[in-house]
Queue: 2 jobs
Job 1
Amino acid sequence: MKSPSSEARPDLTTDLRDGVMTLSLNRPDKLNAIHNDLARALLQALAAVDGDSSVRAVLLRANGRAFCAGRDITSAPTDEDLVLVQAVSRAIVELPKPVVAAVQGWAVGAGLEWMLDADVVVAASDARFKLPEASLGVFVTGGLTATLAASAGLARAKALMLLGDAFTAADAQAWGLVWRVVAPQDLEAESRRVAEQLAALQPVVASRFKKVLNEVGLAHFTRAIELENAAQRAIAGGQAAAGGAGRAASS
């Protein structure tokens, strides 16, 4: 049961200043783990940003000691979870305005995947990253099969996804996942500075650069989303079939 304070607290907060819309994941007590209400709130906020000409850039950040711990595993995954997390990723990539991600602490699973959907990533030196999906028996989301390979190369993307080893902000920068690494106390100011620099561009220029770069560098992003969905459902179906066979054999 939720406490009265958690009931009153929004899962996402917004703040528009100087052309920059700041979207803050706001479940700090859960390390900003993703549940459907948070995904819906972010999806709605991104849709509003798309139609608001006063917004010229987005800063995606998180309150608390972690950026995002991935999907909230306190409940079993559903098909709606998959639809929503993928919809957020597409909204970030397809938004005709630049998105900056500011990352501190852990960025795990879908949290890391949303981070890579952004256009520029600024990370605190204490940030840590991990893709545990394979070890958990689920598939990655967020178009990661396109974005991670585009950033880090296919061989490294395979190792990071299949082995699931944790890595540091320095690793992430060296591998092309992060643009800049700063001291934790400087993350807020530096990510804001980068977002304001992007907001100062002519909107049509920023939009065209993002569109063309993504169409060339992430040419298979939409297909990646489709294949990830199919893989997730195939794995879930195979596990259900195996479970049923096991129960039948033991009866």
Job 2
Amino acid sequence: MLGLDFSFQSIAVRYRKNIKAFYNFVPGSFPSDISFARASGGMYVTDSKLFVSAAPDTPRFDHDLSSGDTLGLLIEGTATNMVLYSNTLTSWYTSTNASVTYASSVGALDLYEVKRLSGGSIPERAYSPPINTTSATTYAVSLLVGKSDGGISRVSLENGARAIWAFGINWPNDTSLSVANIDTAVASGSVSINGLVVAPIATNLHRITFTFVADESNGFNFRIQPNRVTSDSANLFGAVQLEAGIAATSHVVTTSSPATRTADIARITSLANGIYDVRVVANGVTTDLPEVTVSGPYWPTEATGQVEAITVFTAGELS
């Protein structure tokens, strides 16, 4: 009795005659029959786990923050960072017994030592210029955090009346920060912090991302309290971003006003008009799109984020 062969090689042979186009973006090269445009620059992660800025109209091939492995072609929509001086925290305000000084860089993004000076009290902080949120709108937050003296740091979005959200970082004695070290219940009446991710970059350096739904529209400040346990101590922070949207995107550097990264626009230009089946691999997920009508340059709406591959088949192949 003959067995059935479901090996990758067998499947590839089966599909070979019915593949109309195949694009593999993991190697980091851009096919000639795909057009690309982005009116602004854009940040991405290199294989050395460094943040760099690509010039306008230049494709970005993103990499994993922890391993440096290639993740694919980065396709993002328009995003506006509402936090002023996001990469220059020395331009933020500080309370009487707090200081902010440059510490180091991770490529194009900088880290700053936010310090509670000797004689200061627990609330000593650095804080951004005011930010106006819109009630019932979803926002994504991202920032870099690094361990210096450790202790318990507090990060919040608040005004004189209340915190819209806040979280504490209880730095562990070892070098690995995780979600378990983040206390999201430190502010009475704060909104929920959703989808919290702590992504390691290097020893004692991480990127924190999450979303929240604003519940009012008053002016708030992004506030950082470096160490609530010991005076004359510090921790590191940088690349602070608050953007409208359901997920954090690549960092947009601001100065004295909000800044916008325009959308990445990629289009497959070589397909004849007709109906096709399309398979997209993006963000580690495979999505099959049967019977897609192509009329002119085409790009699947599902091919956003870190796009690994797009395969175009004869119609009916994926049914």
